[in-house]
TrEMBL record:
InterPro entries reported for this sequence: MTH1187/YkoF-like, Thiamine_BP, UPF0045_domain
Protein name: UPF0045 protein
GO cellular component: cytosol
Pfam family, one: Thiamine_BP
PANTHER family in alphabetical order: UPF0045 PROTEIN ECM15 (PTHR33777:SF1)
């Protein structure tokens, strides 16, 4: 499964990079395959381990912010592994044609 999620602290002003870094740090320390871009962090693995990483990432932001917004999108396909890489490679292959 791949989960793309965004954690946004509310009530802390416009500069939220430091808070988002706390969440991303948790995901990276989980050891699960992950990728962060300007809008989302994507993480891949089994349901329980991915959802635990998301829960802990939200908790890291919640420790310092009075309110937290979470947006989450999941692709649940048990037979797929390395989807973070293979999905992008497929699109790039089509773009190269």
């Amino acid at each position: 499964m791949i989960v793309a999620f965004s954690v946004t602290p509310l009530g802390v002003g416009e500069d939220v990079g430091e808070y988002v870094a706390d969440a991303v740090r948790v995901v990276r320390e989980s050891g699960l395959p992950n990728r962060t871009d300007a809008m989302f962090t994507s993480v891949e693995g089994e349901w329980d381990e991915v959802m635990d990483a998301v829960r802990r990432a939200v908790a890291a932001v919640e420790e310092r912010a009075p309110r937290v917004s979470l947006v989450l999108k999941a692709d649940i396909r048990p037979s797929v592994t390395d989807g973070l890489t293979s999905k992008v490679e497929t699109v790039e292959r089509h773009l190269a044609q």
